[in-house]
Specification:
single chain, mainly alpha, two-stranded antiparallel ribbon, 5 helices, elongated
């Protein structure tokens, strides 16, 4: 049996699967690139460390949907790590060494007010957006529920009307059949009278 060829999703007018070419990156190389990207949030550094040309990295990102998604995830992980590091600095401070003229050193923890205020500002916006999304989602769910109920009521009403029309059409058809039968009976009687 031959070896199974790996497939990749490529960008085109219509997205499509194609066999991965031999010159394409290996899975390990792509993982290395994405790991460095997640660590640094720096494409140049990821390219330098994995010995990949930047144009090749961006071409692959453009052409390979799975790689593009992994790239975006790596950037998100990197920013999340950076944010955690900044939060740690804001909460716990950074050790600062102060050297005096007499050669002695004093160590102290420095807390950056500017960093703390910036993080609070960023999270305030995030919290507002989350609250707005939560409120919108509740309102949205209620609105969707109401629309569904109205739609179900319209469907029920339409079904009832169709059923009524079917009964009316059925009784009309029965009447028509009875009329035809009576007319046929009259015609037979008339025919008998004229023959006799």
């Amino acid at each position: 049996m031959g070896t199974k060829k790996e497939m990749t999703l490529v960008a085109a007018e219509k997205p499509q699967l194609k066999k991965r070419a031999a010159r394409d990156w290996s899975v390990a190389k792509a993982e290395d690139f994405l790991t460095v990207l997640a660590e640094t949030c720096n494409v140049s550094e990821a390219c330098r460390r994995t010995k990949v040309k930047m144009t090749v990295a961006y071409r692959r990102r453009k052409m390979d949907a799975a790689f593009r998604a992994a790239w975006n995830d790596a950037i998100a992980v990197g920013y999340s790590r950076l944010e955690m590091m900044l939060l740690d600095r804001a909460f716990n401070g950074v050790e600062k060494v102060i050297k005096r003229r007499d050669g002695t050193e004093e160590r102290m923890m420095e807390y950056s007010n500017q960093l703390g205020l910036r993080l609070l500002s960023m999270h305030r916006e995030t919290a507002k957006e989350a609250d707005a999304d939560a409120d919108f989602s509740t309102e949205d769910a209620d609105e969707i529920r109401e629309r569904l109920v109205r739609k179900l009521q319209r469907m029920k009403k339409r079904d009832e009307q169709e059923e009524e029309q079917g009964r009316t059409a059925g009784s009309d058809a029965s009447r028509d059949a009875a009329d035809v039968e009576r007319a046929g009976a009259r015609a037979t009687e008339d025919h008998q009278w004229t023959d006799g």
